[in-house]
Amino acid sequence: MTFYEKTVLDDGLTILTEEMDTVRSVAIGIWCAIGSRDESSSEAGMSHFMEHMMFKGTPTRSAVEISEAFDRLGAELNAYTSKECTCYYARILDQHAGDAMEILSDMVVNSSFTQESCESEREVVLEEISRYEDQPDEQVHELLAETLMPEHPLGLPVIGRKETVSGFDHDAAAAFHASHYRSGNIVVTAAGALKHDDIVAMVRERLALTEGPRTSRVHAVPTTEPRLQVVTKETEQAHICWGVTACSAQDPARFTLSVLDGVLGRGMASRLFQEIREKRGLAYAVYSYPALYQDTGQFAIYAGTRPDNAVAVIQLIRDEVAKIADSGITADELDRVRESIKGQMILGLESTRSRMSRLGSSEVTHSELLSLDEIVERFEAVTREDVHAMAQKLFDGNHALAIIAPFGEDAVQHLL
User: Fold this and answer.
1) What's the whole-model pTM score?
2) Burial class (CB in 10 A: 0-12, 13-18, 19+), 247
3) Could you tell me the CATH number of the domain that includes residue 132?
4) Which side of the chain, N or C, has fewer Cβ within a 10 Å radius?
5) Looking at the annotation, which residues are catalytic?
């Protein structure tokens, strides 16, 4: 028996729910299976722009009235855009679930995209891009994706570029909405104090979308070769991202990758944290992370350090990667990381929003949706040999190095 219930309506719209009988809240998400990777070159940033525009008003509600309505419900309302989807969500008390669904549906289906609101929000997004460019510790992650996958749509920034966003208007927004916000691309998920049939009834009544199939997505495995990109900027720190392509979100090896991540750079006990921060004091922030998508993925390591320490930090990253590829991990590391992953996972799933998000992100990307027990079993099955083999496969020399720092490529070219 599955831990969730699923209904697919005749028009292709999909609904998934998970009932939690120990809470009084409900988290509801309306997901569109469109993200930055699905945009044309002239549309770069449009998925993110649409996320903004859904809050700007409908024929029956102004932007202020949308905010006030959720305030009166005592609700949390937000949205986000990723490379593969866009999500609009609310977390409310269970008795307000119907009201929240009605307002979210109105926003997603009936947004007006008036020229005035498009022009105003366009400026907001341009300011957001400027703010993002002033935060090199965030910007360097998109720089790595661009460096690692320059010919792949996953290499494009979610937020878009100023030159494309500057041209967004009513016609562009309305056309994008008509093309992509249709029934086959939409998934509704909810978790908390709910009944599945009640949520299905709410969706049938309130979410009246144009009927249409799921937008096709071109899948491709990016070509890999050593690449370096340095953005020279007067920063206080050198922001370093080292990365390689990795398995996809559907690959069974993702559990092994998570263990490898835990040993190498996730958490205070990881090798990178201990070597670079605790032992040598060369960075405040140093960590690794996987980012997995439908057709591929990446594994990245970040460190921020004073510019005169950059060469030493990059060399330490290379050394730690080489050690794990050469010798693998210890039995103690495997046990510790597996227990850490299980604990963090269980704690994370105590919130209705986390459970709603797990349902939605899995469904919009056609990923495997496993119960907690099944996930634990997969991690328990990971062996030291599995981790060693993955490290040897990933760390084969075809990596990318992206840096934002007050020096040029010549300072680090020898470390590629």
Assistant:
1) 0.95
2) buried
3) 3.30.830.10
4) N
5) 51
